[in-house]
Amino acid sequence: MPAFDLDSFRSGFPSLKSGIAYFDGPGGTQTPTRVGEAIARTLTGPLSNRGGSLVSQTNAEETVRAFRSAYADLLGADPSGMVYGRSATQLTYDFSRHLAKGWGPGDQVVVTRLDHDSNVRPWIQAATRAGATVRWIDLDPQTSELDLSDLDKVVNERTRLVAVTAASNLLGTKPPVRAIADRAHTVGALVYVDAVHFAAHEVVDLREMGVDFLVCSPYKFLGPHCAVLAASPALLETIHPDKLLPSTDEVPERFEFGTLPYEIMAGATEAVEVLADLAPTGPSRRARLVAAHGMIAAHERALRERVEAGLATLGGDVALHSRAAERTPTLFMTFPGRRSLDVSRALAERDVLAPAGSFYAYETFARLGLDDDAGLRVGMAPYVSEEDVDRLLTALSSALGDRPRS
Predict the structure, then answer these.
(1) Cβ contacts of residue 319 below 8 Å, gap of 6+?
(2) Helix count (H) and strand count (E) of the chain?
(3) What's the whole-number mean pLDDT along residues 58-62?
(4) Dist. CA 406–CA 389, nearest whole Å
(5) What sign does the dihedral 323-328-329-330 (CA atoms) show?
(6) Three-state SS for 224?
(7) Which residues face 133 on adjacent strands?
């Protein structure tokens, strides 16, 4: 595996010159110059609606093709199964409505208490409208793991869909998606996976994960604000969304409503290229992406361990809730006797950005039963350095010493 040249990588991010140590990656990463340039270059054209006559038209066609190709490589999927979306929430709401057309009383939908609410509420609301029943996979707050002890009872012959995260955006927990998907498929249920947090840190392979739908968001891994849904084209062919009569019925475009934002798609494609270029040699872009993710994972794991070691020296002043055996480099913590929002503000005064909140993980936060209305989330990103971590730990130690207990 080639070495990760962190200094060279960081040089591509103008925002890092701000002097801020960014630990807010789970909410959205900083963006490299190359991505911004790709957006500007595409938007200023020549650019028209898609067609085959003039360069402005073919530029739009090529932008869409390149987007689908790049995300097929990133997600281990088929380019014809890549659906563009404004956000993961929007895509999930869309597909909850598409799929619920076939649900009715007696059917069941399974959601978890580990998921971001965007992979919970759309399915509950769609099930309610259809008269279907909602079942839950619970979270053990002591281990930060899903409780799968009764999985075979929760996912049964009446189950139509299982919605599960590939990694918690709050705790970092990576549940055994393949095992859950295999159980769902034995009873004929579909599996919809939120990989928004997962894809920022791990290699994604739609086929290897054994799931039917997977959604992710490029702005979590260096790109612009948008989202992608991956599925097999054959499965997408069986789903018929409400759409305008003149619009195409081709897959995947039947799920993309209105004119596509070509410039955003170009920026998202460039984000994939930035990642692939971390491993400049390889037989394919997919192989380079796999190698790059290996480098990023090793770097981020070392950073996480450095943070954890530093937190351990603070003793009972910090309660760490990210405890799962398999997890991303994201740490969620509270501070007994102190408000997490106050600690976050104290860090910000020292140019360390680690936000406090529940981060739309509504069910997860409630299940933890914390004596606080927020928790502090510290997330690693590829551009985070050991110096950033040391600044975080120094600032945190000072904040906990400076702020009186409530």
Answers:
(1) 333, 334, 335, 336
(2) 14, 15
(3) 98
(4) 27
(5) negative
(6) coil
(7) 108
User: What is residue 146's three-state secondary structure?
Assistant: strand
Encode pLDDT of 367-403 as tens digits. Answer: 999 999 999 999 999 999 999 999 999 999 999 985 4
Distance between CA atoms of residues 40 and 25, nearest Å: 24
Q: What is the helix (H) or strand (E) element at residue 10, kind and residue range?
A: helix 6-10
List the structure tokens of 256: 């993309």
Distance CA 176, CA 190 (A): 16
**Best CA proximity match to 192, nearest among 216, 167, 162, 218:** 162
DSSP state of 404: P
Q: How many CB atoms lie within 10 A of CB 406?
A: 9
Q: How far apart are CA 310 and CA 387, in angstroms?
A: 13
pLDDT digits (tens, 9 = 90+) for 141-197: 999 999 999 999 999 999 999 999 999 999 999 999 999 999 999 999 999 999 999
How many angstroms separate the Cα of 93 from the Cα of each of 49, 122, 229? 27, 5, 12
